[in-house]
Records
---
Amino acid sequence: MTEKLLNYLGGQWQSGADDGAVLSDPVTGQSLVRVASSGMDLKAGFAFARESAGPALRAMSYAQRAALLTTAVKILQSNRDRYYEIATANSGTVKNDSAVDIDGGIYTLSTYAKIGEKLGEQKFLLDGEAARLGKEPLFQSQHVLVPRHGVALFINAFNFPSWGLWEKAAPALLSGVPVIVKPATSTAWLTHQMVKDVVDAKIFPPGALSIVCGGSAGLLDALAPFDVISFTGSADTAEKIRTHPAVAKHSVRVNIEADSVNSALLMPDAVPGSEAFDLLIKEAAREMTQKSGQKCTAIRRIFVPRAHYNAAAEALGARLAKTTVGNPRNETVRMGALVNREQFTTVTNGIAQLQAHITTLFDGRKTALVDADPSVACCVGPVLLGTENPESVSIVHEVEVFGPVATLMAYETPERATALIRRGEGSLVCSVYGADNTTLAAAAIDLASSHGRIHVISPEVGVQHTGHGNVMPQSLHGGPGRAGGGEELGGLRALHFYHQRSAIQASSNILEKLTA
Ligand code: NAP
């Protein structure tokens, strides 16, 4: 039998009572480790984090907690090789794709360590300036942000076992709020190893960072009034979380990052052969294939002027044809596997569902896999679909195929392109490509109301921009509507979720003591 990973809860390592779920290699099918979460006293574990780790973290200043994040960064960096091995085995990712998750997570943690250092020795934050409440200036109102006295429960998706943990844990721990993470079962191993390394290094007070691997049963029942929950995953599970009795009863603060049919928009000035056109092709191909398209931010819909539809289909198809797919251990392979057989089936069915309505422009599944048995490996070649009538095909704006799949669409006017993009009902990110700064700026503002982030690519930032799908800790991550309505990262803004805002109404002489 494979090793069963322990859970860390209540300040101790604990084994789940059942045999557990088996995690496997999506390329070879080999069993790796098991995870189990039944039989533990979850309420006692949550209480320990709340009552023991919470006060210990809050006794420190932001700068002191930032120093702990810096130490955690060093521990994680010293174990990077092990994390890459686990990612290759359990997520089936090539090295560059593992880096997006592993190094992306460590970078986010180190960014928050730097942000925290600048906050210095404060133990709470001021929110805006004091405002006079009456005719006389003596009685005023000052808003403050104080760390919440609860725990932060993270329920994460399978595609980012490292980044998904640290992008949430960094602002929570910096805020002084203990973290309990429940990674998605299929890829829990990497999250487990990282938490284990940090816990074993005794950086944070006991209970500040806990992990429950395996099923989610009972986790939400353990939530109390000052807790927060941050969820990343499907819209169906998100709905269950929002409507869970404990969440409703205790007004538990909820952040949801759900699915999203993100777009790329080529502006009318970007004709084939122009730099902006080439930048769109390069970015769309990268977004389709990076992490086998298993990124919540990946481009799913590509909008180009009708006159450029054929040229874009040809250029994108030619680029995708260069993607070698198969075993990530082979150095010639550029794209590894989907995360498991279930995802393989879901993605295959999703492609078939779209194919019933639109044209297949390129199908990389016809090319043989490298070093991988197609009857075992969960590898899918990139698939580009297309339609010249996106206004009459609703399904392309509704279905998110969570794999190396995107749909090219022709549009008539920029106004109609924007209306089509909005049919995604709220997305995480939209990228816009062109060379006319005035129309690009106008498009960005126009699209902002239905997106958490607008990524504008003009030739001058062609080599500098950070990528459509790369989530940078300095910028907001999250989107309205279908994308879940959540807000994460965005520098200091991320700390607000873990703080309570309160208005202190008092004599200006007392308020001065707060601002001193
Ligand atoms: P999922 O099935 O909803 O699972 C997400 C997490 O929820 C897993 O940890 C899962 O645990 C847990 N879970 C399942 N049922 C639950 C319940 N009843 N109560 C509490 N937790 C429960 O989603 P997924 O298929 O793993 O993730 C893919 C989706 O996530 C895609 O649609 C993608 O767009 C979205 N995503 C969004 C973002 C973003 O930042 N917006 C990032 C990544 C992914 P088990 O694994 O144990 O079932």
---
Amino acid sequence: MNNSFPREFVRALPKAELHVHLEGTVDAATLLALAERHGIEPPADDEAGINAWYRFDGFPAFLERYLTVTSMLRDPEDFAFIAERYLLAAHQQGVVHVEFHISACAHLIENNKPWPPIYDAIVAGCRRAEAVTRISWGLIPDISPHLPASECERAMTKVLDHDLTGVVAVGMGGPADTWFTDDFTPIFRRAKSEGLHSVSHAAEHGGPREVVFAVEQFGAERIQHGIGVLADPAAVQLLVERGIACDVCPGSNLALQAVDSPAAHPLPAMLDAGIKVTLGSDDPPMFQTNLLDEYERAWNWCALTKEGMRQLAANSLEASFAPADRVSAWMTQLEACDSDR
Ligand code: ADE
Ligand code: ZN
């Protein structure tokens, strides 16, 4: 049995959060405020009701509600507010850099919104938080493959035609069902030609072939989740040899029943296999979690030491798309963190 989780030590470690969806940071109070502001019938009348609504029996039910929340973000200031709010909360947990996944295709296609005001507002919200905390951030507009590739391409073209200053990568979220039958690769090719990185969800509910496909077809440099990869040693080797990190969200995996129990989670085996793992909270209020809770799960499930916590934080900094000089300054700070804390 390892000791109790050293929350204050982990809080003090400079950390990056590389797997969190901006729209998934809308907590119950914010959702009620959005409903009130826009005259929308909320899914429940009070915070307890919203938090009960934020319980899912699997990915399809989650996606439906996630898209409902996404559709309640109507004005640019809604986006600015949630971006600022999340960065301030992350800062309180010792996070120095956040890469926000943004469900761009849902806003542009399903909600028929223009991209420039959304992007500009998210940047404004991030800058407000940065001005107070010096937190660093980057954006990952992503593809929702529950929509046809042709529509996603139309939406992502609008994203890529606008200001890319705050954008670090293009991502792939949502269900992987249509990947193998529809062609999303031109979007990633265009992103690369703009100097952007690529990331992709893969092997969250599916198997290792999603990881191989994401790396080979989308040029993914990081995988979100990847928890199904261990079934294929060649796919594991691909990740290890190329140093492709998996941004794992243990609380999300439990909440969406991607695993049956903590004991069934492959996190310890992924670490043992030499995969570079970073921790993320995915959609934190929807899964009743935050980043420190995710470190606590790793501590308990993998029987890690404080040095193991430091290594996970180091992985997150090294796998981030933050500028190299900032990463190296954070690494120096990380190494100086006193483990007697
Ligand atoms: N979008 C938001 N959360 C997600 C998840 N857990 N998997 C895939 N897409 C998502
Ligand atoms: Zn995710």
---
Amino acid sequence: MAPVMARFRFRVLVSDPLHPDALGWLQAQPDVELSVQPDIPREALLEAIGAVDALIVRGRTRVDAAVLQRAERLKVVGRAGTGLDNIDVEAARARGVRVLNAPGANANAVAELTMGLMLALARHLPEAFRAREKLQRYGRELQGRTLGLIGLGRIGSRVARLALGFGMRVLGYDVLPEAGRDLPIERVPLDALKRESEVLSVHVPLTAETRGLIDAKFLRDVREGVWLVNTARADVVDEEALLEALEAGRVGGYAADVPGDKHQTLRGHPRVILTPHIGAQTEEAQRRAGLEIVQKVVAALRDAATAAPRGGA
Ligand code: NAD
């Protein structure tokens, strides 16, 4: 008996490293013709893009106007992760190309790293890793300390639950009244959160409003010696003002997973801990994000084909 032929065939290009389970799922789809080129150079991408129906990326491939201009058949761009910084979303929309991502897939990974950074500040872990003898200063415990969360979306909410498990008192602030509404935490205005928190953690996107949210003025009002954790985006914090606040002792420590312009200066500081954007870098998060995005992309291709079959086929 002849094999059942798929009605449509979609050409899908994967141009960044994707979890093997996600690639396996794509390979198993009868209507997908897959090309996997996880380190495709830009020139080759500009060549290849004209022939594909969908492009799947992570953070490496830059999908800008020049790429989109050549994307004659492209219907969908999928980002296996949250941030769309490497995709020109406006240019894609203008060409009728859907841009999809997998926003919740890495929330737990980033939230766990946030707790890790808090513990690293509290117990001087970088110093302890280097030390051969006991440290000369005591660490502090998270239990009983007041944590202020700015942003109660997917990551902030998950941090709230983990921090409650540590026995912290958790305060939360979000511009959306409904964000994190089911959390058993205290919702407070930003001013109160600033004054009361012993640990502050930011979980907002980078927007015109959040750029420099934690600036010199903000840092004047914080509780003396506050620890600041930033797994959101570097520019949410004015790092110039932060350095001053660290020097003045108003900020007791800064831990960030998001590289910024000032990181060369911050790196040598004894009360600063920096990780190179590893928040989403877990096996579980990459698998979840990969599977979610391939399924969304193929569903979108099938929808588009059913709604408007090419050439009446
Ligand atoms: P989300 O969209 O689920 O939540 C963001 C929350 O911030 C929303 O509830 C929103 O209402 C709130 N918000 C927006 N502007 C605000 C403001 N001015 N003040 C207070 N609250 C405000 O996003 P998420 O999945 O929780 O991710 C948060 C951020 O974490 C992302 O935007 C990204 O920048 C960062 N992130 C970092 C990594 C990493 O590897 N370190 C990985 C994923 C995401």
